[in-house]
Amino acid sequence: MLGPQSSLVMYDEEYQRILLLLERLLRESNSKVIFLVDKNGQLIAATGETAGLDTTSLASLTAGNIAATGGLAKLIGEKEFSILFHEGEKDNIHISIIGGRVILVVIFDQRSSLGLVRLRVKKATNELAIVFEDLVRKTEEAASASAPSPFAEITDDDIDNLFN
Prior knowledge:
alpha+beta, elongated, disordered N terminus
């Protein structure tokens, strides 16, 4: 099985499933913006009021935030903090880790509540985890079915003979 830091291939079918889940979460949680980031800080998908937002910086800083709080967790004997919440004057950010692999970020304001966001995120997290399990399976199947390298049968002797 691929570890949390292994690279996944994002297939269009799973990407569309992810977008549908994020759009439904946006509606059901009455949030402003939702985005999904890998633990390296790469933006996977975003939906909502993203105009005017630097989603690249948000993705990178969110991954850094997860890494920093992961260090805090280890210091007190925890594996990780799987859910983070930041409360602002106007906007709030709810961050959760899905399957140890990706980060779900929900930005919401007074039109919603932390309780509603947490409830809807919990449901969406389970559904998104299934999509990422499917991606892991597909990636593993593709890796095992890939053709051998055309250089696999070349030996050191063949290289020596070529240059001698």
